[in-house]
Amino acid sequence: MKREAVLTTTISENARHAFEEFRRSNARNAALFLKVDPATQVVDVDRPATPCTVEQMRDLLPNTPRFVLYSYEWRHEDGRVQIPLCFIFFTPADANPRSAMVYTAAKTVVCDTFRLGKTYELRDEETLTERWLQQQLSRK
User: Fold this and answer.
1) Segment 50-61, tens digit of pLDDT
2) Diameter of the chain by CA atoms?
3) 94-107 pLDDT tens trace
4) Three-state secondary-structure class, residue 85
5) How many domains does the chain have?
6) Which of 63, 69, 74, 78 is at 20 to 30 A from 45, Cα to Cα?
7) For the whole model, what pTM was predicted?
8) Assigned domain for 67 exists
């Protein structure tokens, strides 16, 4: 019986550098897209940090799983402004099951490496609106 090597997810230096630059930039309303190579299970940059609204970010999503780090300028009704770093795990409902599993396995590594808290999971890109993001951020 032939055995297959078990791969573990790693984060490329390019992705680490892009994330640190993104975090230090204090960007407002910008997205950094990350992808996972299913053959090597290496997480790398898919699209460099891009200024965009939530709706523009939605339009940039491919129809395959992706991780998106979004720096969101959240203006509350009382005038307060917060800029949370949102980690969005996008897996389209019709995604290839193997690809979805690769991303699911990589999610913990990405969260641990970049010290991310909450993950906002998304299956339908049409759901991604500013209102949806605010609802996610409002949950405890």
Assistant:
1) 999 999 999 999
2) 65
3) 999 999 999 999 99
4) strand
5) 1
6) 74
7) 0.90
8) yes
